[in-house]
């Protein structure tokens, strides 16, 4: 995508989105140096918004500034990722009564969640990056039903870091292993629409069991590839 094709998006937001996508899909794996010149050349924009985007990533914890080495993609171990996912689970469970209470006041959010569900229902899972982005969008929309701006900000800040590294890890999994999570969003949404707090809690807990299983699979793969 060149600069002239960017319409409703600032150059900073564009650079930020593209760099995050490259971290997520493994183009810039953990430990990779983020070269402002290389990124600006590849995006067809000046270095100024790229520098600003990288600084934003440092502030978010996605990247790390190393003296005399430059800025690199942060390296999180699976324990750190699990801790972030645990915080995410706690926020999503805490959000249940507020989300149910505010549904009638937030029809635009419900509509966007339904659009995402329709994608999950009718789209064949062929590209992990698309699914991962939609998964993040679905859960952020759900938490936004709380209408608690501090909670929403906390959720997004926590997950902006954790999601990238979790997604980078599980993106190495065969797509067939994602089918259960791919379809499970429909069950979460149905429980929300039914206003059944206990069912919604159960579906959310089941969803996180799938996530934990994915991380365990990745850990086993890493262990088998590095026996020493």
Architecture overview:
- There is one protein chain.
- The longest helix is centred in the C-terminal third of the chain and has 29 residues, at 197-225.
- Helix content is 70%, strand content 4%.
- Residues 1-8 have low confidence and may be disordered.
- The chain is mainly α and 228 residues long.
- It starts with 10 loop residues before the first helix and ends with a helix.
- The chain has 10 helices and 2 strands; from the N terminus they run αααββααααααα.
| Oligomeric status | single chain
Q: Kindly report the spatial arrangement of strands forming the biggest sheet.
A: 1-2
Helix percent band: 55-70%
How many beta-strand runs?
2
Q: What's the main sheet like?
A: 2 strands, antiparallel
Overall shape: it is globular
- Radius of gyration, in Å, reads 18 Å
Extract low-pLDDT stretches: 1-8
Strand content of the residues, in percent?
under 5%
């Amino acid at each position: 995508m060149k600069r002239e094709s960017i319409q409703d998006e600032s150059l900073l937001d564009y650079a930020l989105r593209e760099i995050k996508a490259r971290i997520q899909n493994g183009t810039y794996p953990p430990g990779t140096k983020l070269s402002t010149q290389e990124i600006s050349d590849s995006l067809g924009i000046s270095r100024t918004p790229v520098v600003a985007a990288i600084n934003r990533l440092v502030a978010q914890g996605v990247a790390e500034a190393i003296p005399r080495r430059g800025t690199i993609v942060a390296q999180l171990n699976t324990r750190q990722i699990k801790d972030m996912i645990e915080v995410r689970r706690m926020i999503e469970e805490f959000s249940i009564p507020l989300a149910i209470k505010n549904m009638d006041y937030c029809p635009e959010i419900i509509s966007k969640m339904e659009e995402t569900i329709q994608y999950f229902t009718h789209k064949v899972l062929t590209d992990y990056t698309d699914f991962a982005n939609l998964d993040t969008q679905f859960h952020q929309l759900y938490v936004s039903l709380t209408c608690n701006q501090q909670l929403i900000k906390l959720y997004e800040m926590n997950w902006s870091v954790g999601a990238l590294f979790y997604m980078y890890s599980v993106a190495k999994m065969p797509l067939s292993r994602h089918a259960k999570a791919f379809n499970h969003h429909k069950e979460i949404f149905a429980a929300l629409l039914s206003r059944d707090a206990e069912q919604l809690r159960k579906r959310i807990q089941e969803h996180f069991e799938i996530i934990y299983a994915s991380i365990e699979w990745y850990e086993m793969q890493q262990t088998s590839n590095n026996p020493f």
